[in-house]
Amino acid sequence: YKSVREDLMFGYITRPLADGRTLLFASPEKAIIDLLYLYPFYNTAREMEELRFDDYFLHEELNVDLLYEYSAKTRSKALDRRVRLFLSSYEL
């Protein structure tokens, strides 16, 4: 279990349940930001590649501009570096 600062609670999509309740799901871009934020030991190109993200998704569906926007919202230079490393590791 990990905690996230309240100001980092953004980038979620509401999904309805059959009983009328709703759940919040992280967008793919927010899920990547959370991963790199909560697990800073992913800090080399090899470690990024070993995450084994789907190349088709990354190149066809990932919103790179949104990923940069979310990274900027965290105001973390270290996270910005990991995001750039992530993107270069997957040639994005």
Topology:
Elements: E1 12-16, E2 22-26, H1 28-38, H2 45-49, H3 55-60, H4 64-74, H5 77-89
Antiparallel strand pairs: 1-2
Helix pairs in contact: 1-4, 4-5
Description:
The protein is mainly alpha-helical and 92 residues long. It has a domain at 27-89. It is built from five helices and two strands. A hairpin with a 5-residue loop joins strand 1 and strand 2 (22-26). The longest helix is centred in the C-terminal third of the chain and has 13 residues, at 77-89. The radius of gyration is 14 Å and the shape is globular. It starts with 11 loop residues before the first strand and ends with a helix. The model has no long low-confidence stretch (mean pLDDT 95).
Low-confidence stretches: none
| Total helical segments | 5
Mean pLDDT: 95
**Largest pleated sheet:** 2 strands, antiparallel
Q: SS-based structural class?
A: mainly alpha
Q: Radius of gyration over alpha carbons?
A: 14 Å
% residues in beta strands = 5-15%
What level of helicity do the residues show?
A: 40-55%
Tertiary shape: globular
- Pattern of helices and strands: EEHHHHH
Distance separating the two termini: 30 Å
Strand order of the largest sheet: 1-2
Counting DSSP E segments of at least 2 residues, the number of strands comes to: 2
